[in-house]
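W.,

You were right to be curious about this one. When I first looked at the sequence I had no strong expectations either way, so I just let the prediction run and decided to look at it fresh. Below is the sequence, 597 residues in total, followed by the output.
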Amino acid sequence: MLLVVYTRDVDLTFIGVIVPLLLVSYLTYKTTIGRVEDANRHVDQLNRLYLSTIETLAMAIDAKDQVTHGHIRRVQMYAVQLAQEVGVRDEKLIKAIEAAALLHDMGKLAVPEYILNKPGKLTESEFERMKLHASVGADILSAIEFSYPVVPIVRHHHENWDGNGYPDGLKGTEIPIGARILSVVDCFDALTSDRPYRPRLSDAEALEILEARRGTTYDPLIVDTFTRVHTEFPPVELSEPGPPRRALKEIATARATIAQQVAGPVLEEIAASADEMLTLYELARSLAGQVSVNDAGDVIANHLRRLIPSSICAFYLYDERTAEIEAKHVVGEGANIIREMRIAIGQRLSGWVAAHRQTISNSDPTLDLGEAARFRSLGLKSCISTALVADDEHLVGVLTLYSNEANAFNDDHRRVIEVVARQIAHTFRRAVEFDESPRRDQLTGLPSEKQLESFVQSSLDESNSAEFALLLIDIDDLKGINVAYGRGAGDDVIRHVVQQTRHGLRMADILFRSSSDELVAYLNATDRETAHLVAVRIRDRISREPLLLRPGSTLVVHATVTAVHAPHDGRSLDELLAAARRRVRTATADSEGASVH
């Protein structure tokens, strides 16, 4: 009755105000709910895209290691169920274990396939290469901002309970529990799978091995729990192995529509960049201790600038005597303006990076180079700089990339440069040692045949299917030139041929002095046709550019350039050079020799 009386007394004006307010509130509520639902759908779509990417990466790894097809799927299932059995209840940690199980072998992308699929026992050096997959995988994955701790599990899944594992020698509970779980199930599945070097073991035999390693390699609690419950795990159904390309295509087309719309060309670019990044990582490793600062800088800059577009790539090396960094090697237009520039530690941009060991991105190049950065020939507007620090935390130098565009460097570029910086630091540290050693040819500054032999043998040992070419540049009638014009003229001819050969080579190729009248160029990952084209270009350039002996007198130099291909033409430097020299003798009849004008 009170309510009825009250509503009768309500003013119509009040109703005219309150009803629109209620209507607006209702519509606002509906709009907010709609936005929340849209956001939830978007999050769900992104999660599906994220999982799609994870699975695609995992399939790429599984497909590369043909002898362990299905390994990661089985390990994933075992790891998640074992985690629950040992009492892991944190949902984020469960998801981390699930993702890490898929990606724990990510670093195998940097291991040559001949090692992964080798039918015999690995050599010590091959095993050392295989061991890198844990840290390399963690380095690669560290560029991804996971919302749960995936990277530590991947990095430490080969640590031992007693501290004798790798890569960091963690011990006992220092090892993340996810890594301890993963190591047990990873070992069990490996033992019960066929491998190139042995047939699969029975479950009982595999459990005996786990028991024998209990308390030394593996966490006793994890081993005991796995032994007790492993028979309760349901079997993992796997599709038949197929060509990697087809498998990846099937995965890509099976994902949600949003993944197809958003990720199509982007994933292709990511795949291409990842391949280039791994190539750079492998090149940096293979060059360590083999070549000079200049040669290493040329090769690394060539690949790095494909990953991170830039105008100039500068390698500053640390001089402990003066507490400065010096631009020892610079690649790009206007490099001569920067080359040999010295910056005190803590000063300017690159000096600050050296002192604080932090990456700086999209800063003004004038902070580093002064007004020289504004020269018309440079026109630099942004730069990215990161410290080169070796594994023992020794400062090697600073890598700085400069660009003609403002804000040229994004977060992906920053992640890439930070991931590869440590390996580049190791390479340049060894390159400095190489330059300071007495193993270089005094006349030309080129590495000698001894270094060539070491380099070639290392390349042949890297893979049974290593593909590279050697060019033999044989200077025609150098002895006659020495007799006719003196040894000084002969030295000038050699330096002239070196200069012209370098102009004819590609940036990633490496030149060696083989003997008094021979140079050898190493062409990595080069087929016969390409090697032949480079050889013709060098031969023509040498004869086209006359050498000035004295005023009014020039010498036209000729050289016979032949190409051999490994491993087809030989499996050692001696065999390859013997094949090249046979071709030189065959071609000598057509040589024009040197002439004086």
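Here's what jumped out at me. The CA atoms of residues 252 and 260 lie 7 Å apart. And, maybe more interesting for your project: Confidence is low (pLDDT under 50) at residues 1-8, 239-273, 592-597.

Coffee later to discuss?

I.
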